[in-house]
## 1
Amino acid sequence: MSKKKKLIVANWKMNPASSAEARVLFAKTKRAGSTLDKVETIICPSFAHLALFAHMGTTRVSLGAQTVFWANSARVTGEVSPEIVKDLGVSYVIVGHSERRALGESDEVVAKKVCAVLKEGMSAILCIGEKERDADAKYFELLKNQLKNSLAGTARKSLLGLIIAYEPLWAIGKSAREAMSPRDVREMSIFIKKLLTDLYDPSIAEAVPILYGGSVEEGNTASLLAEGGIFGLLVGHASLDAERFTRVLKTANAL
Ligand code: 13P
């Protein structure tokens, strides 16, 4: 992971439906990302498509997985281990996405996955985010516990590969107009850095990149990156259209 370049992550979720479309989207995204020197593009296809792109990453365009199991060589049907994805050339793994947490993934399981990913020498993109903003601002406490519990067992020395993605659930899957405002993103990034300072120390808080995700599109990329106090973006639906995503990447590169 480059600590100098902005990280722009394409989370394809369960898209596209066919491997033919996935190949086209990957090729176009890779071509766009390869021309940019201030951005690292990270493409996260579904597991089924990941193997199509094995070792096709470059210094500018990396391969990511959307989740992983928390152990190697375990007798667990249907799961994929850290060593299997690493062998495909994956260098980033999204862990604890809210859509997985909604399926029952607990902080405890997320914490094991973070440890397993970092142990394998890959970067873990740990997702945290509140479901809603309550009037009493209890979401601050919720985020504090979510982060603390999701990092349980992660030693200070292994944190070099950690990335935090702040994705408020209420802002996911909408349009740029309904995304969080850059000003509020900035507030949350300061809050997360304060949490990391309390959990570890100020140098860790400084070193761990913070991303924002939730209705990032070409129209709000510049303001989020310039005013949000963040290191990069986690992009869902706008990463499924190569032309749109190219505009996101180019905007980020131009800042
Ligand atoms: P959208 O960009 O579609 O809101 O998705 C955000 C997300 O969940 C990325 O991980």
## 2
Amino acid sequence: MQARRAHPRKIFSDKMLGILDSGLGGLGVAQRLHELLPAYDLLYFADQAHVPYGDRPAEELSALFASNVAWLNAAGASLIVMGCNTSCAVAQRFGWPSSAVPILDLIDAAAAALQQRNARRIGVVATSATVAANAYRRAIARRLPDAQVWEVAAPALVPIVEAGAADTPQAYDAVAEACARLPEGLDAYVHGCTHYPLLDRHFAAILGDRIPRIDPAAVQAERAAAAARQLGLAEGRGGVRYVTTGDRELFRDAIARIVGGEPDVRAAAEAAA
Ligand code: DGL
């Protein structure tokens, strides 16, 4: 299936870095990147018309990824920083979309974070599509060939986060159900979906202090900051803009809740008008 999306005019700064996710998860990457590069302009693109990605077939996810990358290219992004594991998982398996600018893989950033810790028994909770692609297992095997990896799919979690229900007993129960499928004796747990750090308090309560919890967003933001400098990308005004293919008002409320402030939010179709 080919997803088509009207392309934006270059209404944004042409020095900006693009961050891409299906919804709210990549906000953690954007926040960290803004902390590391406060003078750069960021454009956050959320494909909320299609969230959750995790339950969609790989062919559709590849088409959506290509369409989102084309949108960010047309908008003038100088670098695309992935805030979506699911898109990366499918791309690792079936190919990366063509792009005029580099795309930074999030799953390799996660594997690098695990390598830094020399983890040996690794638990990953991720979306169904990420687990079906065996994306974490393969990425970790390239860096830590002796490590054992357990991947657990948790399709209930992204809809809970998108609905603003992270603080509910239902959220706790869904995290508990996923964690119950991880084995004992892990020496690292990694959030294999960027939405899950928004449920981290439940993971902390259930997994306890003995298992370090890794959020790949931190390493991804560090890599993006290094890439921006390496590519010689110019600083902008330090603005952050948000675009969604879904409901603009709901997205604005969610960003205000998660990030704070008065976010500058546009609808993707409006930006293309
Ligand atoms: N936040 C994305 C990820 O890291 C996608 C989640 C979804 O839409 O299912 O995989």
